[in-house]
Structure formats: C-alpha cells, structure tokens
Amino acid sequence: MNTRLIAMDVLYLTIFISMFGQINTETLNDSKRLYEKLLTGYKKQLFPLENSTKPLEVGLSLWLKMINDFNDVNEVLTIVVALRMNWTDPSLRWNPKDYGNTDTLRIPSADIWIPWVYVLNSVDTFEPIGKDATFLALICSNGSVTDAPGAIIKSNCPTDMSKFPFDVQTCTLKFIMWSAGPAFKLTSNSDELLMDFFIPNAHWNLVNHKAYVVQDKKLYTYNIDICIQRKPLYFTVIIILPILLLCLLNPLVFIFPIESGERMGLAITVLLTFAFFLTIAANVVPTSSSPMCFLLCMIFSIITISGFIIIGVIISARCHYVETFDHNSSFEIFFNFCCIRKNGRPLESKKLHGKDVAKVLDILFCTFSYVLIFISIITYIFFVKYG
C-alpha cells in the first residue's frame, strides 16, 4: 500500500515538473524571439520620433543615494544618484499574445536608443549620464522604455559662508539634453527626489529638495535643488568655544599686578592665539565667498579689541611708575571731572599718584573691553539667527 502511494506521488511530481518546465522553456523562447524581432533592423543611432512635428517627451526623476562630499572651499558638490528616464519608442512595440503574453522585456540599454542627458554645471567631465556603464532598460509592449543609469556627479555649487559654521547651502543641478534642441521635451515625473535608498552624510543634513523643469526658448532643463545644512558641532568645539573662552580671559590681564611683568606677555599671547584661530577659520572659507563670513569679521574685531587691550596695558604701566602728576595735567583734569560728576565737588588734593591713576585705568579698560567683546559676540549671534 505504501509502495503504491509513493509511486503515485512520484508520478504527480514528474507531471508537475514537466508542465512548469515546459512553461519556463516557452517563456524563455518567447523572450528570445521577441528580442530578435525588436532588434532586427533596429537603429539605435536614430531618434525615436514617430511624428517630427511633435517633440519626444522624456520624463525624468532622480534617486538620491548619498551626498558623498561637499567641498565648500572649491564649491563642488559630489553626489551619488540614479537618473530615471522614461520615453516611448514606436520601434519597440509588440503584441503580447504573439509572444506568450510577454508584456515586458529587460535588455541592456546599450542595445537601444537612450536619451543623452548631461549635467550642465558639471565640474568633472561633460558626458551623458551612465555613458560607459551597463544598465538594464525595461521595455513595455506599448513601446514605453524606462532606464535608470547611475552616476557620481560633481557639480558646481556657489556657497554662502556668511553664517559659517551654522550655514545652509542650496545647490542646483541642471540636466539638459545637449544638442537635442526643440525635438525633445523634458518633463518631471516627481516634484521631489526619490529617497528610497538615501544614506545620510556625516557632516551635512539634507534639509529640503525639489525637482522642476525650466523652459527657455524651447530648450528644457531639468533642475534639482538640494538644500543641505552643516552639522556645526565640530567647528563649534574647535573654533568658537576656544574663542569665547579667550574672550573672557583677555581683559583679565588688567587684574594682574603690574609689578609681576606678566601683563604684556599674556596680552600678546592671547592676540597671537586669536590670529591663529582666524587662520584656521580662513582656511575653511573660500576666498571668493560673498558675502564674507561673519565669523571672520567677529574674530577680526576681537583681534582689534585685543590690540587696544595691549595699548591699555602700556598706558596703565606707564602711569603706574609715575609718582605724581603735575597740576592741570590731562589726568588731573579727567579725574576732577569724574569726581565732580560723582560727588559734586573736585578733588581736594592737587597731586595725583600714578598708582591710583593706574588702578582706575585698569578698571576702565577692563570694563570697556568686556563691553566691546560682548557687543561683537551678540552681533554675531543675532546675525546667525536672524540675518
């Protein structure tokens, strides 16, 4: 009994394999016949224009795989994309019933005509997308063809570094069918980029993106706007925080005792440190940046304030070693004016001691330096947030 059941199972399995094996063989043969039929006499060098009075519509959409790099000094954006193109080729139509109900066929794109789409603002090479690569094109029975060649694109992207390192950059990629003229019409299949396979970048956040077609005198360009925002943590820790710390320490040179002789050395050291950070920031910002980076302006203003601090140190030290000032000297007139404003009467003594003058000047210079530094920092913060 068991032997009979096993024999019946083997028979059914043999019939099943034979039936589906025959179907697969017929489908493969149908595909071979269809492939030979479509490409026999096919000229891929000719434009597939069924009616010369109407332009051939080529629909475009872009898969953004990743933002590989953005060189803000050289103003070059490098991205990895796949450009999806679809059009209708009347020479690639067939009746599915004649080929085993085969509705679609995938063949190498090198065997058929494909649109030559160029990146107009490319900085690397000016050649069609996917020119030397091999991709599969999907052909439907109604003559509709879809091809999605991939490429690494390097395009020019003018930068606005005014708010560095909190800047947002908008780059526009322009795709065009070069030398095609009015025979072709580009259309956008989507208002946004296709982000199914997107990999985030370590240094930039993708803020916004859009796709649209621009027509200028029957010449179409397919434009892609990519808006990216810098991740500011690295430059904040490396540049901004040390500068803020030095800004707090710089006016404190007036607290040092003049007799120690360390005031001038510390003031010059802080000034040179500011110059060092200015060099670091300048190396990141392109020389052609317009408008100018406001962080560089802030550092330059702080360097100027640091220079005034050195001058204040010199004046304070000079006054410290003067025993007394003569009657009607500029210092005595100034201090008498301050006392009249404060107490309503002038100083009783006609002589001013140099150490007393130096102490008052230290307080004035320290306070004034902090006010100027505070104004510079607040101006930068206000510009970055609201400018």
UniProtKB/TrEMBL annotation:
Topology versus the membrane: Multi-pass membrane protein
Domain Neurotransmitter-gated ion-channel transmembrane residues, every copy: 239-325
Record's keyword annotation contains Glycosyltransferase: no
Location of this chain's protein in the cell: Membrane
Gene Ontology, cellular component aspect: membrane
Database matches in Pfam families: Neur_chan_LBD (PF02931), Neur_chan_memb (PF02932)
Principal localisation: membrane
Neurotransmitter-gated ion-channel ligand-binding domain ranges (all copies): 32-231
Signal sequence range: 1-25
Ranges annotated as spanning the membrane: 233-258, 264-285, 292-315, 360-383
Alphabetized InterPro entries for the sequence: Neur_chan_lig-bd (IPR006202), Neur_chan_lig-bd_sf (IPR036734), Neur_channel (IPR006201), Neuro-gated_channel_TM_sf (IPR036719), Neuro_actylchol_rec (IPR038050), Neurotrans-gated_channel_TM (IPR006029)
Gene3D superfamilies: Neurotransmitter-gated ion-channel ligand-binding domain (2.70.170.10), Neurotransmitter-gated ion-channel transmembrane domain (1.20.58.390)
GO molecular function: extracellular ligand-gated monoatomic ion channel activity; transmembrane signaling receptor activity
Entry annotated with the keyword Signal: yes
PANTHER family, sorted: NEUROTRANSMITTER GATED ION CHANNEL (PTHR18945)
Protein name as it appears in the record: CHRNA7
Organism of provenance: Mytilus coruscus
